[in-house]
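Instructor's aside before we start: the two examples that follow are unrelated to each other. I chose them only because their records fit on one page, so don't look for a connection. First example below.
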Amino acid sequence: MLTVAQIAPLKDRDPYLYETLTKIVAAVNATSQSAGVDSSTPSPAPSPIASVTVQAANGWFDISITDPSASRPGLFYFAESDTAPSFNTPRVYFMGATRNLYTQLGNQTLYWRAYSQYIGSTPSAPISFGSPPTAVVGGGTTGPTPLPSTGSGTLPNGLLRGGNGFGINTGARITRPTVL
């Protein structure tokens, strides 16, 4: 958080300079908080994702996250797999803004969970596939039919249009594309 210690005396001496500096400080602080880079006030964790779905065949694992919560730009998704349901030594997969992961891991039996996180925030609570966590067997050598896309970034799950990552910034606010 940016502070200017000697700004108060300027209020009476030069009100225009005081007003300008106050606006600059407010803009810098709002930008750093929005970007999650303000170390004095870390961003809160995002809401937990709703669910994670996993299917596998022939060594290919297809992971799909459902996240209907409201979000702001900069939300990233992570999946984790482990050979034990306790997730003592999970392998982390950075998914970026996308809510789908399709990866070749061979004929392994893995447990899966997923969560979201903003830069500078703590991660949301992880949600596992199954309750209790359910093992998914990788199988042979060719992949399953991919799960339907659940979009990415600030697009709600109903808008399944790719190529918009974090949404479209029009300056004043993030807009969501119209589904054609």
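Example two begins here.
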Amino acid sequence: MSNSSNPGTVYLVDDDVSVLRATGRFLRLSGFHVREFYSPLDFLAELLPDEPGCVVLDLQMPELSGPEVQDRLRRMAVTLPIIFLTGHGTIPASVRAMRLGAEDFLTKTVPGEQLLEVIQRAVARHAAQQNQRRELVALQARFARLSPKERRVLTSVLAGQLNKVIALDLGLDERTIKRHRASCMTKLGAQSLPDLVRLAQVAGFRDQPPP
């Protein structure tokens, strides 16, 4: 059972109303925020992909099949993990779903505790991905705040050049290079040169010389 104060959103998509309501009730009692969709098209229209969570998806539905919904989510670059929960599972269908990135493929007779375990794992993984994405955006924003000269100096530092060589290349005195280098360290929150190199690699830093 989920004990987290923010357990994530579980999107249930199933054209069987009885299954939809029973599964939704079970997951709410287990601590999850649940959104139920009888129509896969309604689900796609109302999806909030930035929320941590997962999708519990039926395989066979009239409007769109589960694999078709999975394909649309993939083309929309939605990263929510998908768990197939179906009464009509086949080995080829499960293999295809897993190859396309599904978290798991379960039958509707699966024990409740197993379903909870799979959902908790999926939601936790998605929340971790969301955190990593936010951290990356914040880090790239710090790099974006560097001045053009700081970017030039940083590029040379990352290439392993000494301060005096950088000064000669840029037509500046060495003291100015040291000042720009220190400013880069402060703005980026780097504690050492190896830390600076690591941050640049994570952020995908590429120098863009000013016009």
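The chain has a mean pLDDT of 87.
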